[in-house]
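Design request, C-alpha cells follow.
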C-alpha cells in the first residue's frame, strides 16, 4: 500500500523555494513523502520532496516502482515472476505511473458522483480497499509521530538531516509499535 503525506514547512523568503515548497492541495508550504505498508505489516517511507510535486511525478521520479520490479525479478515463485499489486487510497493519483512502469497492477476505491449508487462489485472492492487503507493511514500517523517531524521544517534546519530523521524514525517505528495489519 502506498500513500503520500505532507510535513509542514515554514514560508520561505526566497521566491523559488516558496514556489516549489507550496502545495495547492495541502494549502501550505510543506514537504511530501511517500509511505508504504507491506502486507506483513512492515512500514517505511521514501524521501521527502518539495510540496509542489504531484503524486504522479513523485511516483515516477522516486522510482519505487522500479525497485519493486527489481525485487520481483529475484523473488520468484516456482521460477515465475508474480505480478505485484499496489493498493492506493482513493485520492492517490498514481495509477498511470504504476501502469507505465511494467504494468504494475493497482487496486483503488471506486469513484462515484454523489447521486450514483455503487453496484455489488464496486461496494465490495471499495470496502476491501478502505479496510486495508485504514492500516496505511495508521502508518502515516506513526511516521509523523516523532516530535522533530511533527513540528515541521523550521528556519535554519538542515533539509538533508530532516529527511534522514524522517526515514530513520519510520524504520525505527517498526520495532516500537505493533504492526498495522
Amino acid at each position: 500500500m502506498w500513500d503520500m503525506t505532507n510535513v509542514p514547512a515554514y514560508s520561505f523568503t526566497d521566491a523559488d523555494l516558496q514556489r516549489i515548497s507550496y502545495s495547492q492541495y495541502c494549502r501550505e508550504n510543506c514537504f511530501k513523502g511517500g509511505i508504504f505498508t507491506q502486507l506483513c505489516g512492515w512500514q517505511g517511507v521514501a524521501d521527502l520532496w518539495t510540496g509542489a510535486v504531484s503524486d504522479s511525478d513523485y511516483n515516477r521520479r522516486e522510482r519505487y516502482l522500479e525497485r519493486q520490479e527489481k525485487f520481483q525479478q529475484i523473488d520468484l515463485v516456482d521460477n515465475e515472476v508474480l505480478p505485484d499489486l499496489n493498493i492506493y487510497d482513493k485520492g492517490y493519483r498514481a495509477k498511470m505511473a504504476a501502469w507505465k512502469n511494467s504494468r504494475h497492477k493497482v487496486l483503488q476505491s471506486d469513484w462515484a458522483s454523489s447521486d450514483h449508487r455503487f453496484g455489488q462489485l464496486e461496494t465490495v472492492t471499495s470496502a476491501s480497499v478502505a479496510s486495508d487503507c485504514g492500516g496505511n493511514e495508521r502508518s502515516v500517523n506513526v511516521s509523523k509521530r516523532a516530535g522533530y517531524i511533527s513540528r515541521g521544517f523550521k528556519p535554519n534546519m538542515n533539509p538533508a538531516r530532516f529527511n534522514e530523521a524522517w526515514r530513520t524514525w519510520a524504520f525505527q517505528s517498526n520495532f516500537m509499535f505493533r504492526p498495522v495489519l
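Comment from the thread starter after seeing the answer: thanks! The beta strands are 2-8, 22-23, 28-37, 43-50, 85-88, 105-108.
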